[in-house]
Amino acid sequence: MPNIAAVTPAERYPTAHDVGGLGRAVARVRSRIAAAAERAGRSPDEVRLLPVSKTVPEDRLRLAVQAGCRELGENKVQEAARKRHALADLDVRWSVIGHLQTNKARDVAAWASELQALDRLRVAEALDRRLASADRTLDVYVQVNTSAEDSKFGMPPAELPAFLAALPAYPRLRVRGLMTLAVLSDDPARVRECFALLRTLRDRARDTDPDLVGAGELSMGMSGDFEIAVEEGATCVRVGQAIFGARAVPDSVYWPEATRDRR
């Protein structure tokens, strides 16, 4: 991992303002995914790229869809709902990838294609109830705090087995796998440990009862660390700035613990 403190986010993540530029940005990310997969002896086809569109205005998202982005990830339900309404004429799947409060379960149950941040049974119960009313199902990833940072969302690794064992009680939720955010560090070894731990937790769950983790997917890796995540087994990487450019809004708006932009 390069020393990201040596350059500003704007220098590291230039902003594209047209279809061609966005298409080239996506292609560069896919090329880096492919190279990382090759280093790990994996096929690039095993890795799904989820563009993260938070703070990106609707007009640029329309260009991104023209450039080939057919699914977008948002942290905040309210922002996702607004953009979904504005882009209702386009064929886009919306993923909610940020912490979810129970009072937002109705919105997510109504239109989201997936939730990548399930970490409480109260949320599972609220979603299941709302999904039943809407006659829908929802793909979910269970979020695990692999960095042991108190400020991060996600359950401690030790709580994962009991949580997974409880989820079959909510039949409208389709568990696809696990999700994590790595430690915020310029040390690749520390980042890699977080991703390796999530893979180990997935493997242990499979050994106990493979049905509990569904397809056993691993959503991990963002703009600053997705190549390490792919090397450690990621099946989904959540990439925003490397596609859309540096954000003007600081990450503290989305993660109070964050000190610099990273997704």
UniProtKB/TrEMBL annotation:
Residues 28-247 form the Alanine racemase N-terminal domain. It comes from the Bacteria. Keywords: Pyridoxal phosphate. CDD domains: PLPDE_III_YBL036c_like (cd00635). Coiled coil: none annotated. The modification N6-(pyridoxal phosphate)lysine is found at K54. Pyridoxal 5'-phosphate (PLP)-binding protein, which is involved in PLP homeostasis. Belongs to the pyridoxal phosphate-binding protein YggS/PROSC family. This is Pyridoxal phosphate homeostasis protein. It comes from Cellulomonas iranensis. The lineage of its organism: Bacteria, Bacillati, Actinomycetota, Actinomycetes, Micrococcales.
